[in-house]
Amino acid sequence: MAKSCKGLALELVKCLSETDCVKIENRSFRDCAGEKVPCISSECVGLRETYFNCKRGQLDMRARIRGNKGY
After folding, report:
1. Which UniProt keywords apply (predicted)?
2. Residue from 55, 66, 60, 40 nearest 9 by CA
3. What domain range includes position 30?
4. Lower Cβ count inside 10 Å, N or C end of the chain?
5. Whole-number Cα distances in Å, 9 to 12, 54, 55, 65
6. What does the DSSP assignment read for 53-70?
7. Residue 56 pLDDT
8. How many domains does the chain have?
């Protein structure tokens, strides 16, 4: 995992670990990350989108030269 996205991944796991999807339903982080807003908080959805954009930026050759935006 690239260092630029590692912090986002850790924050996403921390956010998902506090949701009812993981706590009560005992589902995996991967299953809960794919859920929509009612199951997980909007904060986790925002972190998921930001992490996705970070990982996508690593594959874009223009972004690889300039570096990921933000964070």
Report:
1. Disulfide bond
2. 55
3. 5-63
4. N
5. 5, 10, 10, 22
6. HHHHHHH-HHHHHH--S-
7. 85
8. 1
